[in-house]
C-alpha cells in the first residue's frame, strides 16, 4: 500500500497571543489521511482552525508538535532544495481573489510568476504555458494583457487557479475559494474545480464553512470545532446521517431554500458562541454549547474512534441529538 | 393597492430610480423599482452583487451620497414621500419609524463610543428622556436581543464584542425606538451559520412580537425562505419578479429567478456538474433596452430585445418576462421533491 498523499499525525499548531501571555491552540491534535485523487472536505466555523490546518498542510506553517506527512515523509526533514521541489506538488488557493493578485502585474505575468521562480525553459515558453493555462480555466487570451482590477471576482479566482496549476501540483488546498463569489458564479467555479481535478489528477483539501458546497464536492468530510475534528466520514454519511451533536446542529442550522411546508426537521439553534481557543473547555470542547451534554462530557475528553468503516467520531454519546 | 390584501400598505415604492454621477459619466444603478410592504409583512429582496438591492435600501432612507447620486420616484411611507424629503424631516423618521441594520456591524458601529452611548443617542434623538432613563431603555433593549449581560455590554466598546454580539447590538439600536419597518441589509452574511441561526430566530421573534415589517435584503435564498413571506428578485437594477416565497421557490416565473435557484448545490447530485448561469451581468454603461437578462437567458427569443414591463400576473405576483406564460421553469426543488 502506498503512503497517502497527505497525512497529519496528532498535528498541533499554537500561536502566542499578542501580549504573549496566552497560547492560541489553533489546531490541537488532528490526525487524518488524504488519499490521492479524492476531495477531502473540512467544514467548520470561524475560529475552528480549518485555515491553519490548510496552511500547515502546504508547509506555510510549521507544526508546534505532531507531523504533516507528504507521501509518508516529513517535509521538514528534507534538505531545503528538496523541500522546495516538493512544495510544487502542494499548493494553496485563498478566499479573496483580489488579495492574492498583485494589482500592478498583468494577468499573464501573475500566472507566469511561479514558473519564473522555478526557472524552467525560456521566458517565451513560460509565457506560452501561462497562456495555455489561462485557456484551461476558461478565460480568453485577451485577458492575459489585462490588470486584476479589470476582471470580475469570478474571473480573478480563475486566474488564481491557473496560477497554481502552472506548476502542476498534486494536491491543492482550497481555502474558502468560493466564499466571496455570487451564487451563479460559485457554481461555475465549482464546476471548473471538478473538471480540472479529472484533467490533472488533482487531490483537493477543500476548506469551507458552506455545507452545501462541501457536501457537493467532497468524497469525505471532516467536521472541525475549536482545533479538533469532531467527526470524519464519507460525505454521504456526514451529510445524511451525522452522529456528532455538533455535526447535527451545524447541518440543521443551514437555512434551506424550500417552501415552508417542505422544510422538515426543526432547526437546532446552538446557544452561545465558540469558546476562546486559548482555553478550550475541559473534556469535550463542544460540551459548553452541546444540547445533550452530560457530566461525563466535562470530565474526560472523548476518544477519536471508528464507529463504522471509515466513520470516525469524538463523542461520548454519539447519535443522542436528532435533527427531527 | 394590491388585490387580496387588506388595508393600506406601510411602504409603497414606485418608479424609484437611482443615478450615480462621478462628474464624467452618469450611471443608472436602479430603474423603476416598484414594490410595497404591508404592515408587519416580511419581504425579501434577493439578487447578486451589483443588482441594486443595497442601493434601493439606502435610497429609501436618504443615505446615498448627496452630491454624486440622484434619486427619483416615490416611496410613500405612512403617506409621506421619503424621496426628496427635507433632511430634518427625514431624521425624524430614520431610526424612529424606520430602522436599518447593515452587513458589517463593525463598520456600522462607531469604534470610539460605547454600545450604550450609541443606543442612548438614538433614544435621546427621538424621545425627550434624561440620561438615566435612556440608560435603562438601552439596557432593556440589549436584554431584548438576547444579550445575557446587558449592563456589561452597555458599557463595552464595539471591539470588545464578538461578531454575533455586535450584530445583536446593532439590532438593539435599530429596534429601540420600535420602528414600523426594519431594513436589514445582509444582516447575517458575515456570521457563522450557528450564529446566523440565532440572529434569524431573534429577528423573527422581534418582528412577530412587535409587528415590525421587515425588508430583508440578501443574496442568500435559504435565509429568505426561512424568514420572509414574499420575495422580490432583482437583476441588473430592476425588479424582475415579485411573488410569495413558497410559490416562487416551487414555480418561479422569471428565468433569472429559476437560474438562481437551480445554481444551489443541493439540487445537483454530489459529484455532478452544477447548474450555472452563463455570462455575466451587463455593465451599467451598456445596459440593453430590452430584457436585461436576455443575453444569458436560455429561453430568449428575438422579441426579448423589446422593452419588458413588470406584468401583474396574479393577485400577488408580478414578473418582467413576456414569455412567462409559455415557460414552465424549475424552482428550488429536486425532481423527487417536485413530484411529491
- Alpha-carbon distance between the two ends of chain B: 35 Å
Provide the β-strand percentage band of chain A: 15-25%
Number of domains of chain A: 2
Would you report the number of β strands of chain A? Answer: 11
Please indicate the percent range of residues of chain B in DSSP E strands (runs of 2 or more).
Answer: 15-25%
Strand order of the largest sheet of chain B: 6-7-8-3-9-10-12-11
- Which percent bin holds the helix content of chain B? 25-40%
Report the radius of gyration of chain A as a whole number of Å: 21 Å
The secondary structure category of chain A is alpha/beta
CATH-defined topology of the largest domain in chain B: Rossmann fold
Low-confidence segments of chain A = none
How many domains, in number, for the residues of chain B? 2
The CATH homologous superfamily of the largest domain in chain A is termed P-loop containing nucleotide triphosphate hydrolases
Radius of gyration of chain B: 21 Å
Parts with pLDDT < 50 across at least 5 consecutive residues of chain B: 1-5
Based on secondary structure, the structural category of chain B is: alpha/beta
Mean pLDDT of chain A: 92
Largest sheet of chain B, in brief, is: 8 strands, mixed
Order of helices and strands of chain B: EEEHEEHEHHHHHEHEHEEHHEEH
Distance between termini of chain A?
A: 42 Å
